[in-house]
């Protein structure tokens, strides 16, 4: 037999071409859908540019430029839908391409925002994206009005055709004239209720290419003459390289060079480089093999003996001390201190890694006249600026090529990691295009982690079984953010609890650590949502209340929370009378201007084997422009947060991450995934919330509360896998 090196992607492509059955069950519409190419950055645009977002093609088609990344959240489809809605053109006449980050920066941020993070693409960018379509529509109408000698308000633009009385013509006929027109006043965008496309379930444009294997990610980049680099940074973050012996590996097959990468003193932000060594070779396997054999002597620095246990001990001590007061009711401390019935608990969460599907990578080609970059960042304009800064080049000479991302989760925001700088520096030194690919171990060890946190909460319960006062303290370990206050700190989620408790006092502290930290999907809410919503269950049960009814009672007057909780009660069938070993739990958390509530159903065997049977999620983002993608986002958020809370948890030993691959950082497997049911409770009005993250935070506390209902064991730390859940 002949040995054939067949990748999974090649197998899928070959099977599809051969008429195999792999696509059975997938609906891949063509005539009814817009188009996107597997390499949308290379799709030509030959039409007339009406504005930076839109060209009208001679054949009657429309090309929309997408200034945001596509990392599985449906961003390409969302942007195209918002512009198509206002432009009023047939969905099957649209193709999309990624916008040029170089042009964006060169023209004073022409696309307003290129960053894709914080569930904000639709939430915050819809006004200017929709207005881009509305402005183009009105300019086309004005061009037709001038040609036909009628007022603009007598011209109707509908489905790509301009009409006034007996006169009619396609948009393309007036595109050139429209490009020269300046409106006296930009038109208002449509409101929910006036939409013809938005609000309808729409197939994501990227899915067919991801199903058939033709979609290309940054990791797929191939450039003529390209070489490969494997990188190893000091295992203890911010340690140094003492020495390395290139002579020991220089004769190995394919090895080209070994390069020391140096941290810049005082530069320890998210995309800054740490001290590392890179081996360059003609294949990544050869580079990685040689790197593993390269003798390196490290200076681990002052944090070489730090462990998770050490940090938890500090955290437990700090939450006993007075912190920065960020919410204060004068009577709260006194009422809790003297309360007849007081409930107190301490909650802890470990560091967590992003664990993206696509390992960290970047390709950079440094040339005399230009630099080309392929980097899976959530903001391609940041890749331009990072490379320009590293090479001391003019950003106008740096060109980033936007690719599909194999996950982001906040870790690729604003450059995300040092890999883009590493690739630029190595390419500069070897004078060839270089692809840098981190191993999974390097990816986890050098990731910017979700912060470790400890919180202590106490509340006094009145005669009606409801809290009269609550006092909370929380601390987070973070790198370079000891004085930070914001959504990714120990305040968020605790101070923003919706419950109408008369007296509330909260103190916060951030403690400096050497472990680099960054945002993770639903930052702040992902950690504190678990802490607050588990404690709320403790309060409800201590006061003799059904936990769901308690939440409904304590949010009276908050119409949007009531809407979500009452729908959850209706849809989930929450009960407290299941037999031993079975339980249901609820939680509600607000983040990114979306309120999301979850109900979990679990079963726990006598030996402690946990099965999460079902998760029901109800969310209120106010408006939903694509229910199909919205539900996918909710399902993804559920899996992401549940996986980390159940199976995750980084173990810090000797100053470094000890569990650096999926044999020890064992995220949830497909056979452990629960049934997920999603519902929208839309309040409409002014609320425009995100959907990429908010469904995640209420899930871990809902599951923990369900575990208590099933076993009587209260979970006050994650991951769940470390707890003995056996019962008799």
Question: What's this model, at a glance?
Answer:
With 728 residues, the chain is of the alpha+beta class. It has three domains: 29-212, 2-Layer Sandwich (Aldehyde Oxidoreductase, domain 4), CATH 3.30.365; 218-301 and 360-437, Aldehyde oxidase/xanthine dehydrogenase, molybdopterin binding domain (Aldehyde Oxidoreductase, domain 4, 2-Layer Sandwich); 308-352 and 449-722, Aldehyde oxidase/xanthine dehydrogenase, molybdopterin binding domain (Aldehyde Oxidoreductase, domain 4, 2-Layer Sandwich), CATH 3.30.365.10.
Q: Care to describe what's here?
A:
There is one protein chain. With 728 residues, the protein is an alpha+beta fold. It folds into three domains: 29-212, Aldehyde Oxidoreductase, domain 4 (2-Layer Sandwich); 218-301 and 360-437, Aldehyde oxidase/xanthine dehydrogenase, molybdopterin binding domain (Aldehyde Oxidoreductase, domain 4), CATH 3.30.365; 308-352 and 449-722, 2-Layer Sandwich (Aldehyde Oxidoreductase, domain 4). Helix content is 27%, strand content 22%. The protein has 17 helices and 28 strands. A seven-stranded mixed beta sheet has the order 11-12-9-19-16-17-18. Helix 2 (75-87) runs parallel beside helix 4 (121-148), helix 10 crosses helix 11 (419-430) and helix 13 runs parallel beside helix 17.
């Amino acid at each position: 037999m002949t040995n054939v090196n067949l990748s999974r992607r090649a197998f899928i492509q070959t099977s599809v071409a051969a008429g195999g059955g792999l696509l059975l069950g997938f609906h891949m519409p063509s005539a009814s859908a817009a188009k996107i190419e597997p390499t949308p950055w290379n799709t030509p645009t030959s039409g007339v540019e009406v504005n930076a977002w839109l060209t009208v093609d001679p054949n009657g088609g429309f090309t929309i430029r997408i200034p945001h990344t596509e990392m599985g959240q449906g961003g390409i489809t969302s942007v195209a839908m918002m512009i198509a809605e206002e432009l009023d053109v047939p969905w099957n006449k649209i193709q999309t391409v990624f916008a040029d980050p170089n042009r964006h920066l060169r023209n004073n941020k022409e696309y307003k925002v290129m960053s894709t993070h914080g569930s904000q693409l639709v939430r915050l960018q819809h006004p200017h994206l929709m207005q881009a379509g509305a402005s183009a529509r009105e300019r086309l109408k004005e061009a037709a009005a001038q040609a036909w000698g009628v007022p603009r308000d007598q011209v109707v633009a509908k489905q790509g055709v301009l009409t006034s009385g007996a006169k009619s013509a396609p948009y393309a006929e007036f595109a050139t004239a429209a490009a020269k027109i300046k409106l006296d006043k930009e038109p208002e965008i449509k409101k929910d209720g006036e939409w013809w496309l938005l609000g309808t379930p729409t197939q994501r444009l990227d899915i067919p290419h991801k199903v058939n294997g033709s979609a290309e990610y940054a990791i797929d980049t191939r450039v003529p003459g390209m070489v490969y680099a494997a990188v190893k940074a000091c295992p203890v973050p911010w340690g140094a390289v003492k020495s390395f012996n290139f002579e020991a590996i220089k004769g190995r097959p394919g090895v080209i060079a070994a390069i020391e990468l140096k941290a810049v003193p005082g530069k320890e932000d998210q995309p800054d480089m740490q001290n590392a060594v890179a081996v360059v070779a003609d294949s990544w396997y050869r580079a990685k093999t040689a790197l593993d054999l390269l003798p390196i002597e490290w200076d681990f620095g002052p944090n070489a003996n730090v462990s998770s246990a050490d940090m938890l001990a500090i955290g437990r001590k700090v939450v006993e001390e007075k912190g920065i007061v960020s919410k204060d009711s004068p009577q709260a401390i006194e009422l809790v201190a003297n309360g007849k019935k007081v409930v107190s608990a301490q909650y802890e969460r470990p560091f967590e890694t992003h664990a993206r599907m696509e390992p960290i990578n970047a390709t950079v080609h440094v040339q005399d006249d230009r630099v080309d970059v392929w980097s899976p960042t959530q903001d391609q304009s940041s890749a331009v600026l990072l490379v320009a800064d590293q090479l001391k080049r003019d950003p106008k000479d740096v060109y980033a090529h936007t690719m599909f991302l194999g996950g982001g989760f906040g870790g690729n925001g604003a450059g995300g990691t040092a890999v883009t700088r590493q690739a630029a520096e190595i390419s500069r030194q070897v004078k060839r295009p270089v692809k840098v690919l981190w191993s999974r171990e390097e990816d986890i060890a050098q990731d910017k982690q979700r912060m470790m946190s400890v919180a202590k909460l106490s509340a006094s319960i009145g005669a009606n079984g409801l809290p009269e006062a609550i006092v909370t303290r929380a601390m987070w370990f973070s790198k370079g953010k000891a004085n930070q206050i914001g959504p990714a700190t120990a305040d968020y989620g605790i101070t923003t609890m919706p419950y109408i408790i008369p007296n509330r006092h909260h103190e916060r502290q951030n403690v400096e650590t050497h472990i680099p930290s960054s945002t993770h999907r639903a930052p702040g809410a992902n950690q504190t949502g678990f802490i607050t919503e588990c404690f709320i269950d403790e309060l409800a049960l201590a006061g003799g209340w059904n936990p769901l009814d308690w939440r409904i009672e304590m949010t009276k007057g908050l119409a949007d929370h009531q809407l979500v909780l009452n729908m959850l009660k209706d849809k989930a069938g929450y009960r407290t009378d299941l037999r031993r070993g079975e339980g249901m739990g609820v939680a509600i958390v607000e983040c990114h201007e979306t309120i999301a509530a979850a109900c979990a159903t679990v079963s726990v065997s006598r030996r402690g084997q946990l099965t999460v049977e079902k998760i029901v999620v109800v969310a209120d983002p106010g408006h939903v422009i694509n229910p199909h993608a919205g539900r996918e986002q909710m399902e993804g958020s559920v899996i992401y947060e549940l996986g980390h809370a159940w199976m995750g948890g980084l173990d810090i030993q000797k100053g470094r991450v000890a569990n650096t691959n999926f044999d020890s950082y064992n995220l949830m497997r497909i056979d452990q995934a629960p049934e997920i049911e999603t519902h929208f409770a839309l309040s409409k009005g002014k609320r425009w919330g995100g959907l990429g993250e908010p469904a995640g935070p209420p899930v871990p506390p809902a599951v923990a509360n369900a575990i208590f209902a099933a076993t009587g064991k209260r979970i006050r730390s994650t991951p769940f896998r470390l707890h003995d859940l056996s019962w008799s």
